[in-house]
Inverse folding.
């Protein structure tokens, strides 16, 4: 390859064949960092499109160009188009005398309940009064889990034990939060697989009927190629059941278990690539304080350097 | 079963060899590329996939036979590589009746340990074994309630504590208690943990030392991506993992990470989890899986010729 590239420099312009080996290498690197295969491919394809027919460079330079282009592209994807400031939004609701309502959704075991508790801690620290709605009344111990967090954080919990429909529990919790003039209501929901139709419908019903202010999808940084599918199908389930004039979608992502993947941070990209959904926070541990803003530069660095 | 999709794709790719009149390097590359894609999209470790490809190409180049032999050689090589990945060469632990068998469950946070413990207990209970569950998770909020409610549902005696904070003490006490009562299958559930936090790993080792289990089962989420290999290997190195259970394969996950986990733990997959209910546990047999994987009856013959 090297000798080929020596001839390249000068007046020749780049073609697909010059770029392919370099892009293949970067694709493999991205996949190794847990970027989904199709997303790594699409990213490399877009870089190829941009670089083809530009002036040829020496191999080392070309390598650098590809890397920089990838860095730019990835930074753009990871930088949210819409910035969500939950503290400011909760403040606005409080001025209107209404509770700010957030629903946490996602597949099984990703960290919905734990990160809900971390968000509660954040609100409390900012001086908001908070209430939990225990709407996972399916998984064993789910209600007690929320109650335990309630006890530790001194936050009241609205629950109906393991009976009733989750959508109804949420409805009653909202009424209670309004009556008690609570600033923030956080709704926990049961984990479910994105292909489980009845359960997805149950979740959409909860969301659409109760119309929370923010719908947060919890994904885990550990997830592989399935991550994109999870997010897309949860989003679609919400859209499908929304009334035409009030379409609800996932508003933001919390990416949990960031502390368990070392530099294999590709899930951040896989989750945002096709959906453009902003990453609100990263979960970086099991304690209440383990909630951080995503640092785009660090992620890009981990993926490519 | 989900892994079967992967098998179908690999098999389809191999079929091209049968259809083609001659096999040249181009065709081989094409076939390998499809196999590679199938593996990568199923979250098989990137390095393994690369190794698999280069091993096969090496064999192809060394062989100078033609036609039928060449086809056979390539198929053999693919089967061999995949079998090596999935087959740990280690026989799974076989519990013995009439004596206490202590089985400890370990794994990452939210992988499905507590749920799978209960499924596993239910499995032995149905066979008429005297089975018991111990909750050695004092960390996760509501952990004891979860195990307690699960155990009650499947009518398996349980042991745990709301006040004791030391999981080692609980595990030791619990095992002692059930041994004295002549239980045959004593299952120890532990907290979720990850390799980055050495204190958590130390705790796991202490629990292991205290209960001296006959078997240590690593529970892994079927949708896990590229972080799987390192984590699985770290668990293997910390405690003596004897077998693996892959969970959540009722979803969309292709479960290819399972192959990597087997390689990393050098332990066989004994069950797969296919739902949240206690009967959603299917026995897994690697040998018949590989056979089915390639839809070939005479794999054994192919490998030994
Ligand atoms: N290391 C680490 N563990 C986390 C993080 N977030 C959650 N966990 C752990 O992941 C496990 C599952 O968390 P839960 O909050 O119960 O998950 P869930 O999505 O509510 O689970 P289900 O309700 O059963 O679907 C727990 O052991 C948590 O402590 C994180 O950011 N880092
Ligand atoms: N769909 C599906 N869900 C499962 C399966 N196995 C476990 N789960 C769900 O995954 C979530 C996490 O399961 P747990 O058993 O609490 O996981 P864990 O490993 O004990 O979690 P920690 O103790 O917090 O580390 C729960 O919602 C379970 O119901 C499975 O095979 N399929
Ligand atoms: Mg939960
Ligand atoms: Mg557990």
């Amino acid at each position: 390859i090297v000798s080929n590239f020596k001839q390249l420099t000068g007046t020749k312009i780049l073609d697909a064949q010059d770029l392919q080996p370099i892009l293949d290498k970067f694709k493999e690197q991205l996949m190794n960092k847990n970027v989904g295969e199709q997303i790594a491919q699409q990213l490399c394809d877009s870089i190829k499109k941009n670089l083809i027919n530009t002036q040829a460079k020496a191999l080392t330079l070309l390598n650098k160009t590809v890397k920089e282009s990838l860095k730019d592209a990835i930074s753009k994807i990871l930088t949210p188009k819409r910035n969500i400031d939950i503290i400011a939004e909760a403040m606005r609701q409080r001025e209107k005398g209404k509770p700010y309502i957030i629903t946490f959704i996602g597949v099984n075991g990703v960290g919905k309940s734990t990160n809900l508790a971390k968000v509660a801690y954040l609100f409390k620290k900012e001086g908001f009064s908070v209430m939990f709605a225990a709407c996972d009344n399916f998984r064993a111990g789910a209600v007690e889990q929320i109650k335990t967090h309630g006890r530790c954080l001194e936050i009241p919990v609205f629950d109906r034990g393991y009976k009733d429909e989750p959508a109804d529990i949420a409805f009653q919790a909202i009424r209670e939060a309004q009556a008690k003039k609570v600033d923030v209501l956080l709704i926990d929901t049961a984990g479910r697989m994105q292909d489980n139709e009845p359960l997805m419908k149950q979740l959409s019903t909860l969301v659409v009927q109760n119309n929370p202010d923010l719908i947060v999808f919890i994904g885990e940084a550990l997830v592989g190629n399935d991550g994109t599918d999870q997010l897309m199908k949860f989003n679609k389930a919400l859209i499908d059941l929304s009334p035409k004039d009030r379409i609800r979608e996932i508003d933001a992502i919390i990416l949990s278990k960031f502390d368990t993947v070392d530099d294999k941070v590709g899930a951040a990209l896989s989750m945002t690539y096709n959906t453009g959904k902003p990453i609100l926070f990263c979960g970086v541990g099991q304690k209440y304080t383990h909630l951080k803003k995503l640092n785009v530069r660090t992620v890009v660095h981990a993926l490519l350097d | 079963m989900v892994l079967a999709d992967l098998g179908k794709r690999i098999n389809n790719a191999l079929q091209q060899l049968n259809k083609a009149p001659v096999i040249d390097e181009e065709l081989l590359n094409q076939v390998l590329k499809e196999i590679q894609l199938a593996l990568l999209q199923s979250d098989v470790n990137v390095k393994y996939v690369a190794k698999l490809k280069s091993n096969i190409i090496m064999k192809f180049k060394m062989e100078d036979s033609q036609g039928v032999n060449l086809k056979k050689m390539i198929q053999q090589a693919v089967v061999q590589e995949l079998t090596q990945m999935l087959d740990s060469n280690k026989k799974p632990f076989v519990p013995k009746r009439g004596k206490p068998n202590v089985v400890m469950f370990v794994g990452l946070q939210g992988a499905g340990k507590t749920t799978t413990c209960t499924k596993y207990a239910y499995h032995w209970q149905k066979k008429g074994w005297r089975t018991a569950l111990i909750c050695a998770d004092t960390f996760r909020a509501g952990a004891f309630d979860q195990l307690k409610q699960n155990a009650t549902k499947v009518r398996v005696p349980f042991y745990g504590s709301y006040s004791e904070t030391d999981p080692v003490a609980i595990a030791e006490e619990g095992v002692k208690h059930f041994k004295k009562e002549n239980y045959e299958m004593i299952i120890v559930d532990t907290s979720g943990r990850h390799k980055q936090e050495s204190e958590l790993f130390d705790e796991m080792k202490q629990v292991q030392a205290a209960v001296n289990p006959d078997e240590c089962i690593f529970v892994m989420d079927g949708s896990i991506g590229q972080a799987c290999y390192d984590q699985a290997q770290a668990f293997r190195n910390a405690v003596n993992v004897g077998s693996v259970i892959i969970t959540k394969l009722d979803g969309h996950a292709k479960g290819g990470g399972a192959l990597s986990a087997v390689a990393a733990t050098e332990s066989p997959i004994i069950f797969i989890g296919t739902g949240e209910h206690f009967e959603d546990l299917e026995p897994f047999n690697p040998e018949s899986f590989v056979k089915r994987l390639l839809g070939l009856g005479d794999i054994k013959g192919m490998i030994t010729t």
In short: The CA atoms of residues 263 and 302 of chain A lie 5 Å apart. Chain A has a mean pLDDT of 94. DSSP finds twelve helices and eight strands in chain A. The first helix of chain A runs from residue 2 to 8.
